[in-house]
UniProtKB/TrEMBL annotation:
Cofactors demanded by this protein: pyridoxal 5'-phosphate
Protein's UniProt keywords contain Membrane: no
Keyword NADP in annotation: no
Pfam families for this protein: Aminotran_5
Residue intervals of the Aminotransferase class V domain: 100-263
Annotated SUPFAM superfamilies: PLP-dependent transferases (SSF53383)
Keywords on record: Aminotransferase, Lyase, Pyridoxal phosphate, Transferase
Biological source species: Asanoa siamensis
Molecular function GO labels: transaminase activity
Protein name listed in UniProt: Aspartate aminotransferase family protein
């Protein structure tokens, strides 16, 4: 794109944008099982968009200049706190929090607060089960904190609290667990983990980014899920994403702390320059009020009974999808589907999962393949939202047909020299040129349609699955770098 000499007419610009969107996966309609959260409620998008517009130009940099945003943030934090066992009359009456841009920022801030609460620790460490979200690793990387990963049982997909206890050292500033994990939708033994953290005098963060807005409702519906919120002694902070199961537009999450003293080291203050004294609760300084107002409107519109209904619809959809998986010979669930995830793998003699994912895509269902990791096999992840419910029967039919087609096709075949390259390669030897050659061979990159990937990606996933973790990371970094190039015309 080049800047036009004279500005263009609005209609033409909007046409351009709509044209670009045509290449995207469908964000509505319950056929995309990752990235998007759709309650399928009429009029909600329009409301959120209007609310976004009202506050888009407000700057969250200074809540005293824009008290509207302060009021909205305090209301969102209050709603999240109430839902998660905090607030007046609860076990955590002093709970406070911040609205952030997303789960990653919430986790970065939880780690920052824990690190800066212990300035005497020269080399701070955090303890996180391997099923903890990758954003903990990102936080550790950004903040110069060491991450001690604790394995999980390949059967229950949960860490043993004794292993968490054993991983805690005098330098540990935070223990984390998930409610539930993104990959498998499994709730960690939060009470036991919080107890070992408390016994060691260490903070315990519950990452409920994914499930914080559904688990309380699922429990009200009678689903047997463990305590995970501020009712659990020893839980010092909780994160919950509003842009996931609160069904708010992208750009809001909440980080809660049990009391203000736990939150204090989250803040950053700087007065040592000639400009304004900067005081920020989060990573950004200038922040749009748009996502915050949109989240507020969404919560107000759906309401407590609305979220209960959506959780009920979602639970029914999850049960239907899980039953469809169990009805197919050659597939098995990775874990009982008790939350909002259905995650399955192939049993011995079953279909190739990456080919199966392509066959499901060909039938209009977009799933998320997960690569094998340690003892854990490759799997297919489905994030289930309320909008999926009307498509459960159709998914079952598509799954059976896709499995038959995947069995008939067999696994993707990679040239042996390519396999040898990625399995033997030292990541440093993967130069940009080598990756560009591999990418071209696999049909990745521009094919002129605006889609960076070919229709079928089983070969790509098979390649990544075969590669050791550092090679996977290196390949994908190089590939993203190839995609992210400016356009000139
Ligand atoms: C999505 C997610 C995150 C990261 O959140 P983003 O909003 O994508 O930054 C962290 N933890 C869990 C469990 C998640 O599901």
């Amino acid at each position: 794109m080049a800047l036009p000499l004279h500005g263009l007419p609005p209609a033409q610009i909007l046409d351009e944008l709509r044209g670009l969107r045509a290449a995207d996966q469908p964000t509505k309609g319950g056929r995309l099982f990752a990235y998007v959260y759709d309650p399928g409620l009429d009029g909600l998008d329009e409301l959120a968009l209007a609310a976004h517009g009202i506050a888009a130009s407000v700057n969250g940099l200074d809540p005293t200049a824009f008290p509207s945003l302060l009021a909205l943030e305090n209301a969102l934090v209050g709603a999240a706190a109430r839902l998660l066992g905090g607030g007046p009359g609860s076990a955590a009456p002093g709970v406070v929090g911040s609205v952030t841009s997303g789960g990653t920022e919430s986790l970065i801030l939880a780690v920052k607060a824990a690190r800066d609460a212990r300035p005497e620790v020269a080399e701070p460490r955090i303890v996180v089960p391997v099923t903890g979200h990758a954003a903990f690793a990102k936080a550790a990387h950004y903040l110069g904190v060491h991450l001690d990963a604790v394995p999980v049982s390949p059967v229950s997909l949960r860490p043993d609290p004794a292993d968490i206890a054993a991983a805690i050292t005098p330098d540990t500033v935070l223990v984390a667990c998930s409610a539930p994990s993104y990959a498998h939708g499994v709730v960690d033994p939060v009470a036991e983990i919080a107890a070992v953290a408390a016994a060691a005098g260490v903070r315990c963060h519950v990452d409920a980014c994914f499930g914080g807005w559904t688990l309380p409702y699922l429990r009200r519906l009678g689903v047997d899920l463990p305590d995970f919120d501020f009712a659990v002694r020893g839980v010092t902070s909780i994160s919950v994403d509003l842009h996931k199961y609160a069904y708010a537009p992208k750009g809001t999450s909440v980080l809660l702390h049990r009391d203000p003293s736990l939150r204090a080291p989250q803040y950053f203050a700087f007065g040592d320059w000639p400009g304004y004294t900067m005081i920020n609760a989060g990573v950004s300084s200038t922040r749009s009020g748009g996502p915050i107002a949109a989240a507020y409107a969404t919560l107000r519109r759906i309401g407590d009974d609305g979220y209960l209904r959506l959780a009920s619809t979602t639970r029914d959809a999850v049960r239907g999808l899980a039953a469809a998986v169990e009805a197919v010979d050659g597939l098995r669930l990775m874990a009982p589907a008790l939350t909002t995830v259905v995650c399955f793998t192939s049993s011995p003699g079953g279909p190739d999962l990456f080919v199966l994912a392509d066959e499901l895509t060909a039938r209009g269902f977009h799933t998320q393949p997960q690569l094998r990791y340690g003892d854990l096999p490759a799997s297919i992840h489905l994030t289930v939202t309320a909008a999926v419910a009307p498509h459960v029967a159709e998914f079952g039919t598509a799954l059976a047909a896709a499995v038959a087609a995947a069995r008939a096709a067999g696994p993707a075949q990679l040239p042996p020299e390519v396999l040898a390259l990625v399995t033997a390669l030292d990541p440093a030897a993967l130069t940009s040129e080598v990756v560009a050659g591999l990418a071209a061979g696999l049909g990745l990159g521009g094919d002129g349609t605006g889609r960076p990937l070919p229709e079928r990606v089983a070969a790509v996933n098979t390649l990544l699955d075969a590669a050791p973790v550092p090679v996977r990371e290196r390949l994908l970094v190089e590939f993203l770098g190839l995609l992210q190039r400016p356009t000139f015309d």
